[in-house]
Design brief:
The structure is a single chain. The protein is built from 10 helices and 9 strands. The protein is α/β, with parallel strands linked by helices. It has a single domain, classed as 3-Layer(aba) Sandwich (Rossmann fold). It has a 9-stranded mixed β-sheet with strand order 1-2-3-5-4-6-7-8-9, sandwiched between helices. It starts with 5 loop residues before the first strand and ends in a 13-residue tail after the last helix. The mean pLDDT is 95.
């Protein structure tokens, strides 16, 4: 199977009870369903059948695209039909094609989730999937990731120059620091997903910790980094360190630390989304040039 080949596409149909709740609690999201197509997909990645989600405007045209990287691990954080109808549809309704992977081994997909190992191919192969879509402009592809998905975004930026803009929210950047602060995650997650051998494990942590190699990230991809200062799941120090390292590497960057915000930036949900939408519109949709990073002005 050719990587990125679309193997299956099934329209998402929300049941009556879900539609009724959506109409009552989020009328704007309910109205979007008339303007956006949502589908569950299966596609080829590394010889495996991997599942995901797809959202696109119903109107004709060729649109910029966003690869959305979910958070979580295994079945925790899998994108539901309701999330597709709210989160993914909100971006699609603004005039974007949105493709999201559930990562291998999840939601009926083959293989095993590796938390930034071989499953990184599942994210990168969505570029080929979008290239095959008439509705997607191959010259305007971006990426948006939350938490573990932010880590996947950093990792992808070290492997491709195709991304015109990227967003990393509440992102992991240092797995060693993460495990030191949250030792309970060793048995819960990493003992299952990382190599057991000491040498191989150290190499895996290095490879999955972009704080160790920020200079490898593609410098033609403007990067928006958002984090909450009250995030207990991923310590905000990781975002501060990553922003500092990216600054030293002269990477085009905007960094916002939201005062008192949690892992999901719930206290600033409106402001956070406005920043993200503006970022995509400016550097992905409109392809604005990045300002000079050299000291200048008065």
């Amino acid at each position: 199977m050719r990587d990125g080949k679309l193997l299956e596409q099934t329209a998402i149909a929300l049941d009556g009870a879900t539609l009724a709740r959506l109409a009552e609690r989020d009328p704007e999201a309910h109205a979007r369903l008339d303007r956006v197509e949502l589908a569950k997909i299966a596609y080829a990645s590394g010889g495996l059948r991997v599942t995901g989600m797809l959202a696109r405007p119903k109107r004709p045209g060729r649109f910029p695209s966003v690869i959305y990287n979910r958070g979580g691990y295994g079945s925790s954080g899998v994108i539901s039909a309701r999330q597709a109808a709210t989160q993914l549809a909100a971006v699609a309704d603004r005039g974007y094609v949105v493709a999201a992977s559930q990562y291998r081994g999840n939601a009926g997909g083959e293989g095993r989730d590796e938390f930034g190992g071989g499953d990184l191919a599942d994210v990168l192969n969505l570029i080929a999937l979008l290239d095959d879509m008439d509705a997607a402009d191959p010259e305007r592809i971006g990426m948006w990731g939350w938490s573990r998905g932010g880590l996947m975004t950093y990792l992808a930026l070290a492997r491709t120059e195709r991304l015109r803009a990227a967003i990393a929210i509440s992102a992991m950047a240092d797995l060693a620091d993460y495990l030191a602060r949250r030792p309970e995650m060793e048995q819960r997650v990493f003992a299952k997903l990382l190599p057991a051998d000491g040498t191989l494990r150290a190499a895996a942590i290095e490879a999955r910790s972009p704080i160790r190699w920020p200079e490898r990230l593609c410098k033609t991809t403007p990067l928006l980094v958002l984090h909450g200062s009250a995030d207990w799941r991923v310590h905000p120090g990781q975002a501060l360190a990553m922003a500092s390292a990216l600054y030293e590497a002269k990477h085009p960057l905007r960094f916002v630390l939201f005062e008192g915000a949690d892992h999901g930036l719930a206290e600033f949900s409106g402001e956070n989304l406005r920043l993200c939408h503006d970022w995509l519109d400016r550097y992905l949709r409109d392809r604005e040039p990045w300002p000079s990073l050299e000291p200048h002005g008065l």
